[in-house]
Task: inverse folding
């Protein structure tokens, strides 16, 4: 079936990671050269193994799959990125496409569809789950990068002082960013703003 597709597989749920690896290894033209349990491990594995494709989840400890894809793009790494996720959130897909991700499919797709998507991505095509292709452009992400960063901290339970220290900002600056984000999202408080942003895939 031609050359082997070298794959790094990133997924924070151990059982899912093992299942994906086992299923992909059954394909004669696919070789899983490394696995990773979080974003940092995924970046290190790509750097070390130089795969053709990084197949990654979105929500992982540390850096998300989208963060990893953005960093690979910044580095000029040629590895293509195929995101496989349970999250059918249009905001995630929009951000993924904007940073050059090659594919976005859902975990509940049959394994045959996942393998087909992997082959298409390797061949230079762009693959998007049909059920998301139209919805992705319904509502644009209203948040700035800094607002998104602060809301991610809110989602972890951090208070304003902790966020300020973590991001090297004045506490008043954090409050201002949160106020703006809450207004954009029509949220009554910081927690609701973070939840709304996460539900839309903007975090």
Result:
């Amino acid at each position: 079936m031609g050359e082997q597709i070298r794959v790094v597989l990133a997924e924070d749920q151990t059982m899912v990671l093992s299942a994906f690896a086992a299923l992909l290894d059954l394909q004669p033209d696919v070789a899983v050269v490394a696995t990773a349990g979080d974003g940092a491990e995924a970046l290190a594995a790509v750097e070390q193994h130089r795969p053709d494709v990084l197949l990654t989840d979105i929500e992982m400890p540390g850096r998300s799959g989208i963060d990893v894809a953005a960093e690979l793009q910044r580095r000029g790494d040629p590895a293509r990125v195929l995101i496989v996720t349970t999250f059918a959130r249009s905001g995630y897909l929009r951000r993924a496409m904007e940073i050059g991700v090659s594919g976005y499919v859902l975990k509940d797709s049959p394994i045959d569809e996942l393998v087909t998507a992997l082959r298409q991505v390797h061949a230079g095509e762009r693959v998007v789950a049909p059920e998301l292709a139209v919805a992705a452009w319904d509502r644009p992400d209203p948040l700035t990068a800094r607002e998104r960063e602060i809301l991610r901290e809110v989602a972890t339970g951090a208070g304003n002082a902790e966020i300020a220290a973590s991001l090297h900002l004045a506490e008043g600056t954090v409050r201002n960013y949160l106020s703006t984000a809450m207004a954009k999202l029509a949220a009554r408080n910081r927690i609701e703003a973070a939840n709304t942003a996460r539900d839309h895939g903007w975090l």
Q: What stands out?
A: DSSP finds ten helices and six strands in the chain. The first strand starts at residue 5 and ends at 10.
